[in-house]
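Hey team,

Filing this mostly as a record. A colleague (T.K.) asked me to run one chain through the structure pipeline before their review meeting, and I want the input and output archived in the tracker in case anyone asks later how it was produced. No errors, nothing strange. Just documentation.

Input sequence:
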Amino acid sequence: EDFITVLGDNVLLSNIKAFAQDFEKNRDSIKAKILLSKVKNPERYGVATVDGKKITSIEEKPKNPKSNLAITGVYMFTPDVFNEFSRLKPSPRGELELTDILISYLKQGALGFDILQEAWTDAGSFDALYEATVLMHELELKGLLKNENSR
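Output structure:
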């Protein structure tokens, strides 16, 4: 079955149901779909460059990003992704890199995307964790987020 993967350091305030439904509608033409978000510091992320409705390139933490569209860490895949992983060779870091899977799908013309309009951040560093905490607190104060544990 198709599945969604969300990296554990993502803080996402959007309902991704439409993201999944659109993937299902376009399943004949794409094998993977990623969620992008405009950011101020794209060099901290994997970055996608798009032209209209097509991704033209993907770079992992580029020094000079071609765009400000970060790959959020929300992915949807068909089971074919496991075949792709079996063909991968480890990176210089000795790991199988998800970016390499995305680039493979990009070359096949089988990678789709959506651009997130709502708040998103990662919490992969102490600074980013702080930013995520501030974001969540601001949303709670505005009444846009309920915290069942608040007093």
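Quick notes for T.K.: The first strand starts at residue 3 and ends at 6. DSSP finds four helices and eight strands in the chain.
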